[in-house]
Amino acid sequence: MSSERIDAKEIAAYVGIDWADGEHEVCLMVCDGGPLENSRVKHTPEALREWAHSLRDRFGGRKIAVAVEQRKGPLIYALMSYEWFVLYPVNPKSLASYREAFSVSGAKCDRTDAELLMEMLSSHRDRLRAWVPEEEQTRLLAMLTQERRQVVDDVTKLTNRLGSVLKEYYPQALEWAGELNSVQALDFLSKWPTLDDLKRAKPGTIEKFYTQHGVRNKEKITGRLADIRAAMQLTRDRAVVRALVMKMRVAVDQLRALLKATREFDDEIEKLFDRHPDRNLFKSFPCAGPVLAPRLASAFGTDRGRWGDALEVQAFSGIAPVTRSSGQMRVVEKRLACPQFVRQTFMEYAAQSVKKSRWARCYYQAMRAKGVKHQAALRALAYKWIRIMYKCWKDRVPYSEEAYQAALVRSSSPLVSRLANA
């Protein structure tokens, strides 16, 4: 919903929120009159939900205009699902200028900032732009990619659990079954849940199983058959084996369902992404395949007015660090309050990009050579990728590795010498 479509008569109250990691200062003014109401809300999903629903009930579902600093992405991310809120992101520079106009000392106070945000919104709403949710297809793509990732995480947990169970009574299966998160492994364990079951099988049956599952290397199959004949039980305690077989079957059945769900998510995401207006743009980035390209597209969205600059994307995603200073102390820390899936998307893309992008690989290696730890080096690389992606996205121009490397040469980047020796 845009500000032009919302008449002042539709708004029941104005709210200013000063964001903080743990607790937010809130200032509310009822449009029908009354004193300013100051309060605090904890930064937890439960507390924010309770606060949001209390306002909905209080004002009968009428619109509530909410001002929050533009770069405080996690709060916008948390509040955007409540349809009775009309969110107005305020540029931090605008708030700072507004603060200085009323405070000669420039002193900053969370409660005062909340009041100033509310005052800016109530007095100058016509000059601010409401945050506009993405259209349905883009929101669906974002939700599907996030849910798919959750399923993949569940697959990883179950695979680890299955591996632990096999180590207790049937460790040979870890080698013979194949990757435990594959259909081949699940079929293998369903068909031969114990070493005794496998030993009773005819060599031709085992060979046929492997060939049906894509194993064509005759030498490899022959070697496995020999290993199976020579294999010994880890334990012959029937009570232990029976209990662990039951536990293994549970994990196998759950993994089958999750792998099926993953394929269904992949099919739906592929259909949606094929119709996405920016599909070719995001597919142009190195290693942005069928999984990461839709996630990157969802992170940016299709509304070119959503982000004022690349820094807003970096801050919202949690890739940009937080600088805390007091007196002579200055500490740069990882940003904790952010949409975790969005940060994960950029981090995973950065990790993949070093495989095909020469400059990305050189940059990562340079950071590591300076003693920067792996995760910090990936965050730094993701920070640079977001700047590049933002420019491509804003201009609707696909990425070109050659063009970017040429830009590095023109700017005399320190990476040029590394690229020459790569």
Characterization of the model:
With 422 residues, the chain is an alpha/beta fold. The chain folds into three domains: 3-133, Nucleotidyltransferase, domain 5 (2-Layer Sandwich), CATH 3.30.420; 138-273, Helix Hairpins; 279-421, no CATH class. It is 59% helix and 11% strand. The protein has 19 helices and seven strands. The chain has helices spanning 45-58, 73-79, 92-102, 110-124, 136-169, 173-176, 183-191, 195-200, 203-212, 218-230, 238-274, 279-283, 292-300, 310-317, 340-353, 358-369, 374-395, 401-410, 415-421, and strands spanning 11-18, 23-30, 37-42, 63-69, 85-90, 322-326, 329-333. The strands form two sheets. The chain has a five-stranded mixed β-sheet with strand order 3-2-1-4-5. The chain is globular, with a radius of gyration of 28 Å. The mean pLDDT is 89.
